[in-house]
Amino acid sequence: MKPAIVMKFGGTSVADPEKIQRAAERAIALKRGGRSIVVVVSAPGKMTDELLQLARQITPSAQGRELDALVSTGETISISLFAMALAARGCPAISLTGPQAGVEADDNHTRSTITRIRPARILRELKAGKVVVVAGFQARNPKGEITTLGRGGSDLSAVAVAAALKAERCEIYTDVKGVYTADPRLVSQARLIKRVSYEEMLELSAAGAQVMLSRSIEVAKRYGVTIHVRSSFHPSSGTRIESLSEEKMEEAHVSSLALDKSEIRLSIVGVPDRPGVAAKVLAKLADAGIPVDLIVQSAPTTAGVNDISFMTPRAHAEDAKKALASLTLKLGARGVDLQDRVVKVTAVGTGFRRHPRIAAAMFATLAKARINIQMISTSDLRVSCVIDRAHGEKALRLLHAAFGLGKKRR
Amino acid sequence: MKPAIVMKFGGTSVADPEKIQRAAERAIALKRGGRSIVVVVSAPGKMTDELLQLARQITPSAQGRELDALVSTGETISISLFAMALAARGCPAISLTGPQAGVEADDNHTRSTITRIRPARILRELKAGKVVVVAGFQARNPKGEITTLGRGGSDLSAVAVAAALKAERCEIYTDVKGVYTADPRLVSQARLIKRVSYEEMLELSAAGAQVMLSRSIEVAKRYGVTIHVRSSFHPSSGTRIESLSEEKMEEAHVSSLALDKSEIRLSIVGVPDRPGVAAKVLAKLADAGIPVDLIVQSAPTTAGVNDISFMTPRAHAEDAKKALASLTLKLGARGVDLQDRVVKVTAVGTGFRRHPRIAAAMFATLAKARINIQMISTSDLRVSCVIDRAHGEKALRLLHAAFGLGKKRR
Question: pTM, whole model, 2 decimals?
Fold first, then answer.
């Protein structure tokens, strides 16, 4: 048997019977090429949100077990309809829930982590010549009950199944054509990227690109699963996410830009410059369950105090502010400052450390446009600048032009 | 532990979050009385129909396994929402799918028969003080996969679970107040019946009463489960379906009337009067999967031929006609006659055989109103007359008055 191909269809791709029919035809076309096909699907359209809305009408504090029993029905509806569509076209098919497909996860209801895949049932059905339609997002927990994988769970299911099957690739069908050099709604010159490395994709995801969540890309990277992001609705060839050759890795380049409007900046200001202060701040935030991105500690002033700033999702702003406020007295800091008129613009690529001209070009471009940079964070794979929200889209367009991203390359 | 009480809520009783809240409050009220409570629920409102409609948009010929995976999601949504509603009111609760609840059935997808209930999990959760919310309609087949129980499946689940738990009673909450002496929409004097025997209820169900299907009543009768039919929306005390005492059984009485408009009459006419002809006709119909009710063979004419007539559901009319047409030549019959302007009016009660005056009163009442009786069928528990459709409701009202059913009795 040739290596299988995993095709994952997101909610918009299975939103109604007509779209399911179209997706089923794509799967059949690939199977006709002599390949074993596993299809992983999300719940139809907005169904998960509708089910959560029903739960909220019952109670704002539903338990995880019952919420999972509820929301997992969306994917079960998708798999059975999808298998019917395949069978109606003469293509042998079988639907499997996450537990039936051997997807096992931990006991953290509504945000479980996959612990292993037992692919025996999938392999048996593939061997029998069937297209296997697996419910994404669902898994069996150690108690043998259904649990769900949280945000981006269906992508994670697809990548994990592809890894377990040693599949040739995992095709992610979505409502965009692939990964762009920048959001095409904001930058008209934005260009589809044909290939991108796992590392760059991880940075892009962290920088706010919506295509895929980092948890799935991490699993793909660990197991060497080639991901192919494609549109359900356009014949475009999409973007391959894979290990790039050493040679490519050596070339310094910017592959894509991202603009993240979802975070706010928090600062604890006038902190006496003593060892261990930053650690205390971070421990406090970790205890409060607050995600932290882009931490910057300013150089101490002559008065021996400095500021510690970081970015956090808007939803956590108030909790984070409270957590820090309780620290200010203890640390002898001056206070807490919350700035929500900020955006983060990020250039993602490779070789930034060896080639500081990329960061330099970025700062120069912003300076020339009189855009003030509030925070900077760099790694070998990215440069992020926090700037005033009013300049976000303009900065994105200027940088896209400055790095020549609109021109065809690899 | 006192014997448990099983409460079954139908689709209209869990159609939206507000109705689920109300049903949950009923369960809690009963639990406060110190009882162990098992709740069995159907899919919300019209959901099963909507899911079937989705399947039809995909294909008119879906396989049973995939259809069951699809339609069973409705009950899963109900149980999780119901358990949330209980928990939100401080009542410990757990939802169980049919397979989780130990409901086992055969492999006939979409119309499985329950083979056994393994109540260990339900008992464990009851012992832990929880209200156990079980999905009706769903079961686990011998392959370990989900199957469904067909029409009336949720009632069947409730009665079977009540039998397995040796529950004190099985309360069936529905959108009517209970069993009436006749359909109250047709007969204004119709009265709620407080108690009715399994046997009478079986006859009423066969005669077209919509309250419960006979399969659930049969199981209740076999295991001695007392059924209590009640309204979800009115405080009325409803109807108890149970074994009646010997004494009651001896009294001849009419308890209820039913009018069935769902059947047509088919006759194979001018059949030579030879032994075995009726058997051949019935075998042919059985082979074609056609349900047959109320078979009447006329006395042979002097020419040595007779007619064989029976009633069958309208949906099977054309198939039945075809099956019989193919027999006419072989039997030397004159032809097939289909009459669809007919209704069946049935009086159900006890002791009809020993007390022929009941049948006589029925015929006399119809004769007096110049309503012609086309077919008659009697048993110890019922008298059915097929009459012209135009007279159906009038006959029902006349008989209701003639038997004095509007007056209060047991």
Answer: 0.83
Digits of tens for pLDDT over chain A (410 positions)?
689 999 999 999 999 999 999 999 999 999 999 999 999 999 999 999 999 999 999 999 888 999 999 999 999 999 999 999 999 999 999 999 999 999 999 999 999 999 999 999 999 999 999 999 999 999 999 999 999 999 889 999 999 999 999 999 999 999 889 999 999 999 999 999 999 999 889 888 888 877 788 889 999 999 999 999 999 888 888 999 998 765 565 567 888 999 999 999 999 988 887 777 878 888 888 888 888 887 887 777 777 888 888 899 998 999 999 988 888 888 888 999 999 999 999 999 887 877 778 888 899 999 999 998 888 888 878 889 999 999 999 999 999 999 999 886 54
Question: Domains in chain B: how many in total?
Answer: 1
Q: From the list A73, A87, A100, which residue is nearest B76 (CB)?
A: A73
Chain position carrying tokens 């075809």: B322
Quickly count: other Cβ atoms within 10 Å of residue A90's Cβ. Answer: 7
Of B17, B73, B79, the CB nearest to A76: B73
* Tokens 């997992």, residue located: A72
Give how far B117 is from chain A: nearest CA, Å.
19
Spatial contact of B106 and B145, defined as CB atoms under 8 Å apart: no
Q: Is position A101 within any domain?
A: yes
- Residue A388 within any structural domain of the chain: no
Contact (Cβ atoms closer than 8 angstroms) between residue A110 and residue A67 = yes
Query: For residue A24, is it within any domain?
Result: yes
A334 domain-assigned: no
Cβ of B58 and A97 within 8 Å?
no
Nearest to B36 by CA among B103, B107, B148, B131: B131
Taking CB atoms and an 8 Å cutoff, what residues of chain B touch A73? Answer: 73, 76-77
Cβ distance B84 to A57 less than 8 Å, yes or no, reads no
CATH code at position B113: 3.40.1160.10
**Inter-axis angle of helices B17-32 and B73-88, nearest 10:** 60
> Phi and psi for A263 in degrees, rounded to 5?
-115, 160
Contact B59, A21 (CB under 8 A): no
C-alpha distance across the termini of chain A, in Å: 32
Tell me which residue range forms the domain holding A126. 5-175
B contacts of A95 (beta carbons < 8 Å) = 65-66, 69
Give the one of B66, B84, B97 whose C-beta lies nearest to A58's C-beta.
Answer: B84
- The answer to whether the CB atoms of B66 and A95 lie below 8 A apart is yes
Residues in Cβ contact with B78 at an 8 Å cutoff, skipping those fewer than 6 apart: B14, B20, B41, B42, B43, B44, B135
Does the distance separating the beta carbons of B58 and A21 come in below 8 Å? yes
Whole-angstrom Cα distance, residue A45 to residue A43? 6
**Cα–Cα distance between A259 and A72 in angstroms, integer?**
32
A397-A400-A406-A410 Cα dihedral, nearest 10 degrees = -150
Q: How close A121 comes to chain B (CA, Å)?
A: 13
Q: Which of A69, A83, A97 sits opposite B66 (nearest CB)?
A: A83
